[in-house]
Fold these 2 entries.
Entry 1:
Amino acid sequence: MVNITIDDIDYQVPEGISVLEAARMVHIEIPSLCYLKGINEIGACRVCVVEIEGINNLQASCVYPVREGLRIKTNTEKVRKARKSAVTLLLSNHHRECLTCVRNLNCELQNLADNLGIRDIPYTGEMQDYGFNDNNPAIQRDYNKCINCRRCMAACNTIQDCNVYSPLNRGLDTIIAPAFKKDLADVTCIMCGQCILACPTGSLSEKEEISNVWRAISDPHKIVIAQTAPSIQVTIGESFNMPIGKLVTKQLVTSLKRLGFDKVFATDVTADLTIMEEGSELVDRLVNEPEKLPLLSSCCPGWVKFAENFYPELLDHLSSTKSPHEMCGALTKTWYAKKYNIDPSKIVTVAIMPCTAKKYEASRPEMTSDGFRNVDHVLTTRELVKMIREVGIDFANLPDSEYDEPFDQFSGAGMIFGATGGVLEAAVRSAHRLITGEEMSIPDYEEARGQSGLKYGTVKIGDKTITIAIAHGTKNARIAIEDFKSGKKKFDYLEVMACPGGCVGGGGQPILANRDYKYISLSYRHNRADTLYNIDKSKIIRQSHNNPRIHQIYKEFLGKPLSDVSHKYLHTTFTP
Ligand code: HC1
Ligand code: SF4
């Protein structure tokens, strides 16, 4: 510990931390913009400047380490003026379209300008026009709202190891962009949206599909069917001032019905179905095709794209099982349409997902059934929030509603898909039954849980010991794959979720105060995941194979796992 003073008050703080961290530790808020703890500590924006006794120039507190006897001033006239002028300069070349911006009222730059009392921009003159790009199905970039903070770059490089962005040009012309300003579809982007979560302004956002969905809802000839991902049930409430991780399943279903969706299905049901197919693939490979081990999970489209981009030689290892969201769309336009005598051309399927990569996944040409796209539109959690706000629904006070048959009942296993390790835990529960014919005495597989980025473990099923790995954040996935390729580690099954925390930390989730990326986003993810695990614990049915809807789907349509019909509608291929 070292002794310092901040604004004439004595404190003891850990040695070596930055002045910014020390101040926040003692509840003195120094404003910042480019700083993201642990991943972007570069002192570039100069918003966090402070005075240090004995040093002439103002110092960026995010990169200035504390030391014994340091005397810091955070609120002098000189400091206030410098911060104001740094932000005013940024605003002078920023397309200030706040009223119509996707991040209006949720923009860190806007918030900062207000907090610093900036009421006019004295610098006039021509603004740069760097353009706009949205030539891909998932993510758009408005270069005119970029403030060169490099937070997107840090998220993409440090968390995802996709290295899409770098600074282009020099001086005033500097922009943060993919090489040669290419579209994200033409570089190694996996469409995960982690850069959107990191962006403090409206420079990065998902490609909105809200107007297409309203159009479908207003068309009397269309039957518009929503499905909701497991994690949405524990995240959307946060946008309506409810506690982090609060379970709001019933309000979610009611809100979708009030918006005009004809039916609301739970993707959790087809998460159970994914386990039936993928669990059977795992058992099949363990017994018949050990050369195709490890089996790599494939329900996360960001991870699939990562594997396609960087490890094309391993695509045979990916499970061919489609993701739950695609399965739900496929079954809706085939089995469900036939069962309820509906012309599938009249059905519009809309998936509410925590994920921008799901927009890309839904657009893949192989994601069709009998000529129809499985999922017509994907809305992120944020887009659904906008629709709910648009019509003035009081989300927190909505009455309860139930999901619609036959995608209404799901197991605890289907629900924990939304957290890192959940798919693997669900698969273990069913693999145990498939291999031994018996249920696990305790379905909880605690080793699979928690926020550590890469976990290795073993699980005993009958007389077999299965080795497993779980990674979240594709940087960790790369470590696992390299460990496997070099022979350093051996595992039979690897679960990867591209986003830190799994879908609860997805790139389409509500953007909360992410000033302190590591600390805050971690605690959010914990709360969200904990709720999923608690609900799982409280469920009577906790295994995918015990879900009565799964029995029904196999009886009425698919026959058995890995049948010809399953292969036709529920399995896919990958493209190197
Ligand atoms: Fe997910 Fe999945 S868990 S990928 O994270 O397998 O998006 O929530 O819907 O498809 O079920 C996302 C979440 C989601 C799929 C399922
Ligand atoms: Fe990088 Fe993901 Fe953003 Fe693509 S979507 S640029 S991979 S962080």
Note: The longest helix spans residues 517-538.
Entry 2:
Amino acid sequence: MTLPETEVTGAGPAAGPTGARPADPAGLGTPQPAWPHRHLLDTDALTWPQIELVLDTARHMGEIVAGARPRSTTLRGIGVTNLFYEASTRTRVSFEVAAKHLSADVVNVAVSGSSIEKGESLLDTMRTLEALGARVLVMRHAVSGAPYLVSREFRGAVVNAGDGWHAHPTQALLDLYTLLGHVPGGSLRGRKVVILGDVLHSRVARSNLWTLTAAGADVWLCGPATLLRGFEAWAAAGVGGARRFTVTTDMAAALADADAVMALRIQKERMASGLLPSLGEYVARFGLTRERLAATSPSCIVMHPGPMNEGVEIAADVATGPSSVVTEQVANGVAVRMAVLALVASAAGLSTGLPAPRLTGGAQ
Ligand code: CP
């Protein structure tokens, strides 16, 4: 059956614990690999065909964002709740915009002013939001693993929008989507991608390691030794199969002929005393400047997940210069998050075009 342009999911039975999986969970019009994930908690759970399905779906969604296709009704009547315990601009807003493009009923929970401030537990908050109609819960939390805890009890779908130092899967997927739009031939195989800066505290770096190595990129992690702790041992052990990455404090070696450099924010709020002698010394040794960028490939792109500390990890003229794709990353986040929302909703058995489905297995 060919779906109307605005129907992105709903082709056939939705995936459930025992149900048959749709051949085309994202409604791309041709049979696709199965999408089994009711929750997206990190990229380590994704196979390469599943990553490709997200990217293909995001390309389709990008046409909706660009106005070339009408707004989708994929999540009509489905409650998408954004629960952010940590500050966010890009991720929270792009999930909201993405959910609206899919016709979802979007609710944003402001932790400040909610009963969370009165000491309500994370699980009580989740149950309350579920009772109020949340079927897809997008959550950010300062504690690594918090979305995993919630996903064990929440009966809809959970999307991790960043947990502690651990994972930020939709950021890694939008980074990959952006990168693939710039490399000749559309493949990262053998391409050198440098992740530079505060790797230690970076959930973005950790999630990117899985997607970039799955894509066959030659990944280099570079920064001061104190901000690479643990990664050398991980690199030496290998992360599985043919995946390999290099860990170095040698900025010149890392940047030589790089195809992409992803600068990471110096996370002052997570910086225990003693990890850096001073910000000034960091800037002098590891700041991404135009002079240093000259060592990279002529077509090298500059990325940053944001928010940026201009003049610290990245010079202002690099952040906004011709090699920068930072605003493109932000824009791509909408299509990629639409894809993720559509896919997890499909796997959770959330029907399209219906009132918010009742959840089984407990009181509502
Ligand atoms: N990249 C990112 O997570 O940005 P926000 O903190 O603004 O969401």
Note: The two ends are 35 Å apart (CA to CA).
